[in-house]
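Before a computer can learn anything about folding, someone has to put a protein's shape into writing. The outcome of that step, for a single protein, is printed below:
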Amino acid sequence: MRRADRLFRLVQILRDGRLRTAARLAEEMEVSERTIYRDIADLMASGVPIEGAAGVGYVMRSGYDLPPLMFTEAEITALALGARMAVAWGGPAMAAGARDALAKIEAVVPRREELRAALDRLGAPSMGQSAELRERLDRVDALIRDRRVLLLDYADEVGRQTERRVQPLALWFWGRAWTLVAWCELRGDFRMFRIDRIRDLTPKEQFTPAPACGLPVLLARLAEEEGCALAPDIFNR
């Protein structure tokens, strides 16, 4: 857990005004007591009204709140929909991240009822995804971030099995199916592998993608072939 996330969670725990010992906080946060002492000291130094001492416990005075986040109705709708889809179609870690993110947002938005209303009216039913497949999504996502070459035991659409060494680049969701986007060392080109057709995968050594084998090259090629950007920068408007 990142330090900023840990400090945010610690504030959220203490907001109920109950006295908690460092040992209790360490258990709830799944960190050491030493980490709790350090984090409490940092929060107190930054102006968070926490009172207490080691061996006694800590409590936060009432009236403290985090600065409000202002979202438009459209922004709240987008956040709710994204969270619903992550929970329905992502891996367990992705789903947990979506839930935690929503909890943080709900804690600091002035009109949290709008977020709840958006969640109530938006749905993304999960169908046909096994627990094994969802766990594989998290595993592949972690291996992409670690830049590990993967040895795939893969079956194509007619069941033919092949073994591929690939450099994983991204996970793309196509509505009902996830694909691993990768540089295939066997073909010497980009390939997409459906996650549900991967029979087994073995992590190998780390790799540094060559410029010609990176995701920007694939995106540029697909944009030219399809006449549109298939993975646009979400921050561009």
